[in-house]
């Protein structure tokens, strides 16, 4: 019962964080490891639990996504699918012990990316140059591989990458970020299923709680100053990183 309550609380809070600012995986992964799941299984199960929030976020920005041409959107999604599959397959062949040792460093990297987000993600009028489509597509493929392997910080990385074009408005980038996160996470989860990496009981508990938390987070986020939200996510990320390093 205690473990179930822990998973419910962590997933609910993670759903709120993802809806408000991002960083939900900082809570789901450590909670699942704490209740005894091997790190690769915890990573895969937590990724499944947070999946619905990506598509609900994309739906919220559906009007802004019309700025992106159909051909460009297809290319983005195809790269997300290919990268997500490659990253998930990489997780399947990574020895559990090697992934366990990498988890604290991955959490630390995701936290640092979140801390640097204001400098990485710039508004259109702040950009002095833009990257070529080839560079952007290559970057998207690499970020998608990372997202398929380890989902932490994927939203910020995608926002930073999409901002390289210099042509998209911030709301459009947010919509694309959510859509691409959902696409690459979906195919990653399918690969996880085929590789038997999903703990269905734990994932089911967290999925329901995270979905409800996402709704509450979307409502509450409007009343909390952005710097406060960002600060809370950074503190949580650093604490969870320290806990994972401490646990070895």
TrEMBL record:
Topology relative to the membrane: Multi-pass membrane protein
Family: Belongs to the 4-toluene sulfonate uptake permease (TSUP) (TC 2.A.102) family.
Keyword Mitochondrion: no
Protein's name in the database: Probable membrane transporter protein
Record-annotated membrane-spanning stretches: 43-61, 73-93, 99-117, 137-159, 228-245
Pfam families on file: TauE
Localization annotation: Cell membrane
The keyword Transmembrane helix is assigned to this record: yes
InterPro entries, A to Z: TM_pro_TauE-like, TSUP
Keywords linked to the UniProt accession: Cell membrane, Membrane, Transmembrane, Transmembrane helix, Transport
Organism: Mesopusillimonas faecipullorum
Primary location: membrane
Superkingdom of the organism of origin: Bacteria
């Amino acid at each position: 019962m205690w473990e179930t309550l822990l998973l419910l609380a962590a997933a609910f809070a993670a759903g709120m964080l993802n809806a408000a600012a991002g960083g939900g995986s900082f809570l789901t992964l450590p909670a699942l490891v704490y209740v005894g799941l091997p790190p690769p299984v915890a990573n895969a199960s937590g990724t499944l639990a947070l999946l619905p929030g990506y598509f609900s976020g994309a739906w919220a920005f559906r009007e802004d996504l019309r700025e992106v041409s159909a051909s460009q959107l297809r290319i983005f999604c195809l790269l997300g699918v290919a990268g997500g599959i490659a990253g998930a397959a990489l997780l399947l062949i990574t020895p559990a012990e090697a992934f366990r040792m990498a988890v604290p460093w991955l959490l630390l990297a995701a936290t640092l990316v979140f801390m640097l987000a204001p400098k990485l993600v710039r508004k259109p009028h702040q950009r002095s140059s833009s990257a070529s489509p080839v560079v952007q597509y290559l970057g998207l493929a690499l970020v998608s591989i990372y997202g398929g392997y380890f989902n932490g910080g994927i939203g910020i990385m995608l926002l930073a990458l999409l901002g390289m074009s210099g042509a998209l408005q911030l709301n459009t980038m947010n919509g694309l970020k959510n859509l691409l996160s959902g696409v690459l996470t979906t195919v990653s989860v399918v690969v996880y299923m085929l590789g038997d990496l999903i703990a269905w009981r734990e994932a089911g508990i967290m999925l329901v709680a995270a979905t409800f938390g996402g709704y509450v987070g979307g409502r509450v986020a409007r009343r909390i100053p952005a710097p406060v939200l960002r600060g809370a996510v950074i503190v949580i990320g650093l604490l969870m990183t320290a806990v994972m390093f401490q646990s070895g």
